[in-house]
Amino acid sequence: MPILLVSTETYRLISEQTLPGYELRSGTPRRANGNWAIRVDDEVLAAIEAARLPEESDDAVVSRLVRSAIGQRTS
Questions:
Q1: Can you give the pTM of this predicted structure?
Q2: Contact 31, 37 (CB under 8 A)
Q3: DSSP string covering the chain, please?
Q4: What is the distance between the terminal CA atoms of the chain, rounded to a whole angstrom?
Q5: From the CB of residue 70, how many other CB atoms can be counted at a distance below 10 Å?
Q6: Pick from 13, 7, 11: which is nearest to 57 by CA?
Q7: Mean pLDDT value across the chain
Q8: Count of alpha carbons within 13 Å of 57, Cβ hemisphere only?
Q9: Per-residue pLDDT tens over the stretch 4-16
Q10: Which residues contact 17 (CB under 8 A, 6 or more apart)?
Q11: 38 near 8, Cβ under 8 Å?
């Protein structure tokens, strides 16, 4: 299963959107640099890759996509 690296801010943003009865599990402990490793399935990774802008990090694309989905301005 592929792993994406996201910041604490993006991890929090994702977890706030998690439906009741579900939980977000990172799959690994928080890394020394502060990032979280999140396991995603191949279908989710394909959608993220399709939306990724040139040179955009995992964190940047995931944050942008989540914010867009919930109607927040991206930074």
A1: 0.83
A2: yes
A3: --EEEE-HHHHHHHHHTSPTT-----SSPPPTTS-EEEE--HHHHHHHHHHPPTT--HHHHHHHHHHHHHTPPP-
A4: 29
A5: 10
A6: 7
A7: 88
A8: 8
A9: 999 999 999 998 8
A10: 66, 69, 70
A11: no
